[in-house]
Amino acid sequence: MIVLVFVALVLAAHLYLWHRTVRSTTRPGRARKALTWGLVGLVLLVVATFVGTRLELGRWLAWPGYLWVALMFYLVVFLIVLEVPRVVASVLIRGSERRSAAAKEPVPVMAGASAPPAAEPAAAPPMSRRLFLGRTTAAVAGVSALGTVGYGMTSALGDPVLTPVRVRLPKLDPRLNGLRFAVVSDIHLGPLTGIGHTERIVRMINGLRADVVAIVGDLVDGSVAELGALAKPLKSLESRYGAYFVTGNHEYYTANGPQEWIEELDQLGVRSLRNERVEITHQGAVLDLAGVNDLNGEATGDGPDFGKALGGRTPGRSTVLLAHQPLQVEQAAGYGVDLQLSGHTHGGQIAPFNLVVGLQQPVVSGLATVDGVQVYVTRGAGFWGPPVRVGAPPEITMLELRS
């Protein structure tokens, strides 16, 4: 069902683009046919890119395919924004054409009067006003889309923003004041990232001198055989009490499932919390750090088990939960969790998708309280699909606990 909806949206977007960037900008002829077939080719490129990357085939399609997806999206956005001024201009043009036609109506000749000399036929204008309007609209949208995608690529491929956040937990043991978490999610090692992406993230996390490193899902977009080398720098992560990981939805999209990555991360010194918890002892006080699997694991019997991860805790002890999707707080709230750390949303990644994400998740980015539980959602340090981020730069968070 999701695949059919995706294909329908892609076809609808390209049909709209054909009307606004081909039909409205060309006269019938070879140019229109060539542009039409070019747009058909781009439709096939989008489908081939998503299918190929999911099956770990045709990775060479990733760059052109995903960049066109971003351009397609922003072309549609800017063309829709331009619809109102385009309609207004079209109405004014039609009015002008009617007035011009009325002014050119022949003057009746009285009997016996000599007819006025025939006017020389005017040369046909090289371009109609409507064609000029169509080309102008398409050009404005094209330049705007290219500029936006260019800016978004600079943001997505640049250094993540370091975001300091202080969270006050009323029940926190005062001895845990100042305990610091380096929170990162959605690194998305994949066909468009190199080992430099991982090395930069590790270097920036190590520079924070955190007590705990929390990797909150969606680390990879492929198998260990394909991407294992890109994950090797994680072995150099430094923190006082260790690095911890929970699965995201993309770990369940890989050909072999998440288990091979759990084992690989264990070899790299990153512990996976699989519906379990550990005790973090800091200055003589103890904090419960728990982690649950992503909701997408339910289809294979590997979903979240909050009872297993959070049941039977020591009364009065503060608990921080790692859960990839902010939506999981709805279940965590019943277990007395103090703070949930999540990712998944990318902060929307490319505006105005942040508005759509807000319909599916209770928090898009930042700190909020849901059902009495504080939830911090990081925008993620990588990207998925197009290497573009607009309005949601990549992020690594230094989160400090306070009582």
UniProtKB/TrEMBL annotation:
SUPFAM superfamilies: Metallo-dependent phosphatases (SSF56300). Keywords: Hydrolase, Membrane, Metal-binding, Transmembrane, Transmembrane helix. Residues 179-347 form the Calcineurin-like phosphoesterase domain. The chain crosses the membrane at residues 34-53, 60-82. It comes from the Bacteria. This is Metallophosphoesterase. It comes from Nonomuraea spiralis.
